Amino acid sequence: NNVIYRADYQEPAFWIDTVDLCFDLDPAKTRVLNRMKLRRNPDVMPQPLRLDGEELNLARVLVNGQGTSFKMENNQLVLENLPDGFEPFDLEIFTTCAPAKNTKLSGLYVSNDSFFTQCEAEGFRRITYFLDRPDVMASYTVLLRADKKAYPVLLSNGNLVEQGDMDDGRHFAKWVDPFRKPSYLFALVAGQLVAREQRIKSRAGNEHLLQVYVRPGDLDKTEHAMNSLMASVAWDEARFGLTLDLERFMIVATSDFNMGAMENKGLNIFNTKYVLASQATATDTDFGNIESVVGHEYFHNWTGNRITCRDWFQLSLKEGLTVFRDQEFSMDLAGEASARAVKRIEDVRVLRTAQFPEDAGPMAHPVRPDQYMEINNFYTVTVYEKGAEVVRMMQTLVGRDGFASGMKLYFERHDGHAVTCDDFAQAIADANPESKLAQLLPQFKRWYSQAGTPRVKAVGHYDAASGIYNLTLTQSCPPTAGQEVKEPFVIPIGLGLLGADGAELSHGMHVLTEATETLTFPGLQAAPVPSILRGFSAPVILEYDYTDAELLTLLAHDTDPFNRWEAGQRLAVNRALGYIGQDGLAAGDIRLDAPYIEAMRTVLRDPKLDAAFKELALTLPAETYLGEQLDVVDPQRIHAVREAMREQLAGALYDDWQWAFETHKENGAYTPDSVSSGRRALTGLALTNLCLAARASGDAVWPGKALQRFKDASNMTDRFNALAALVTSGHELAGQALQRFHAMFKDEALVLDKWFALQAGAPDRGGNVLPAVKQLMKHPDFSLRNPNRARSVIFSYCSANPGGFHRHDAAGYVFWSERVIELDSINPQVAARLARALDRWKKLAEPMRGAAREAIARVAAKPDLSNDVREVVTRALA
Ligand code: DPP
Ligand code: ZN
């Protein structure tokens, strides 16, 4: 088997100091001349040079200008007759590749007649033979040559030092990157592109040129990305003292991209989804995502590029840290405490609906994994989002200023090097020697090594005679593959105690380190209501048997907005689980109790709460989140119960939803700021509820209003929310609105993605979604090759529509297995993501469980499966 282990890490046998690349770009056959200076690594036993390469045609190998013998061994070019000693020598390799045939979108490929590269994690080996590993850092010079008319723009990393015309209609550009870098940060772009440009001056007084390159028709959708980039530059200087280290910083957008974006040095390449926005085509969510992804990639320039990973097991060194940084960036830009809390709630929602299931499923792995078959499978919510939570806990333990000092020390120690997660944690701790982090560092680092989501069970006891309240906290962590027994974690727990009237009696931060600890609070007049894990201070599952009365107190009064929201979610979860577990209870017979409905009404009407918070609080927990609370899952049952609860809230709060809609709908000129996008979010939720209520009552007024709003909307958020209200409520007007929407936006690929996704993710009514999805795949605008489009239809159904996907007749799983196999021969990375839609199959109720297993086995039985998909299905069946 081809499993790679972290414990097997060894330094490379050779270092590569300089790389001089010359590209003759041609879609059918691109010629790559790679001239390197290498030397033996004196710290490693002498051994042959093994260069990685994939799907390359090798034409020539020269050592110090002379031909040499070589052999090929499993995708490696092996050179044995190299000069002895430690003197540098020249290695020249000439290869060709076929970018137009590269459907994997890894390496050098063609999209819309332009050339792009994607080298993380191991794409550079698809461009030339190389020591394609992040600890080999070299200085790059790149000469690009291509037909001038077809490819007027030629870009690579660093600075443009020379350009000119050749005599055959071609032209050239020469780029030099002043910083050493690992191969995964290499990039080139060639094509017909135009740029929005902005000159800025840093605080330090240096001038920089910022550019956002897009296809010619898209220039009017680049303002927000540019603003986000300028904000990112300013933020990193202000918060961490990290300045832009290049004269020029470029972002280029492509519509064919496996991931969100890529932080190549000085030449970030982005999925168009995270660049292009106008009020007519992008929603508030899109605007927010662009801001955070532009920030994320920019912040990588220091956390990832200046200091990179020693090996891919350390991926969270750059990703967890950089997600933490982009989260903080978005919060700082959001402004007030209430807007920061909204962002925090949204981030936690992602963690709990996506990362917690991953941590409990067959792909569970530590933030710093110990092994992999295919590294592309480990760009996960665990490495990214849980990794960010680990960094956040460090900041909690050392304080905001202490964390900034830790970052400073990290750069003093490791700038220009490829390092490990241990190095990062050590720097933060060493800069804060008095902190809990420093005192508990080896134990704290279990967050990097132990997989699984810890549980903290809290039990309170109030003794009226003594006035003492005891809160006992017990932590545990379930076994995961290869880790039967877990040692206790360091868990910072934000705590508050409220009186029954809601007044705050005390608050603080407790750091739980033992398996069990009891906290004592003397001098209380009555049993308090504990507010535990405030701000979601650790990525754990909190178990506490709250009574409804306690939750209602927290929902109404907690000073911590996160726990206020959480109290509302718990009220909903308790009810949903109760209904789900009640045998024989038909969804139509569900009756929500008055206290819950009144509590929701109070939140909705509360003049002191932000619209954005209300939208989050009035949204029921996701179906997948409810599923995670159960041992055996029937996704259709969960869906039916949640829909029934939703319809009841819609009907019971009918007047309140009308009020919410009418009082929040006017918003003046469009700006995507947190206050006005919060208003739009609440308006959208209100409209959906009004249409749902209308569906039950047969009233046609609100669907009519929704259609009108859909037609008149001045921005995509309002237009799309109105469309979604019709589709979600299953109203007959949805069909004509969908048709009109398609006609309006037929030339806007990103908007069409929304159109496809809305239909594939629509609430299932009698099994109607799967046939609709199959129909959508026959639509002339559908393409399996374009990852965004494939995701908008197939993933929206298989991964984001549990009620529609987990059919009792297994047809959803048959569809899934066919698509995984079909995609695998085009693009294994995308296929492997889809393969994970059945991660949690073991929890399914029969007949789904057996059918899911069969579908996974069918995929696993395919002989020429990629490593990517093989790893996912092998683990699922293990
Ligand atoms: N390193 C990229 C990112 O997360 C993913 N390739 O920004
Ligand atoms: Zn990243």
From TrEMBL:
It comes from the Bacteria. It catalyses: Release of an N-terminal amino acid, Xaa-|-Yaa- from a peptide, amide or arylamide. Xaa is preferably Ala, but may be most amino acids including Pro (slow action). When a terminal hydrophobic residue is followed by a prolyl residue, the two may be released as an intact Xaa-Pro dipeptide. Its EC number is 3.4.11.2. Residues 88-185 form the Aminopeptidase N-like N-terminal domain. CDD domains: M1_APN. Pfam families: DUF3458, DUF3458_C, Peptidase_M1, Peptidase_M1_N. InterPro entries: Aminopeptidase_N-like_N (IPR045357), Aminopeptidase_N-like_N_sf (IPR042097), PepN_Ig-like_sf (IPR038438), Peptidase_M1 (IPR001930), Peptidase_M1_dom (IPR014782), Peptidase_M1_pepN (IPR012779), Peptidase_M1_pepN_C (IPR024601), Peptidase_M1_pepN_C_sf (IPR037144). Keywords: Aminopeptidase, Hydrolase, Metal-binding, Metalloprotease, Protease, Zinc. The keyword Transcription regulation does not apply. Its cofactor is Zn(2+). One of its GO terms (molecular function) is alanyl aminopeptidase activity. GO terms for biological process: proteolysis. Residues 548-878 form the Peptidase M1 alanyl aminopeptidase C-terminal domain. Aminopeptidase N is involved in the degradation of intracellular peptides generated by protein breakdown during normal growth as well as in response to nutrient starvation. Belongs to the peptidase M1 family. This is Aminopeptidase N. It comes from Caenimonas aquaedulcis.
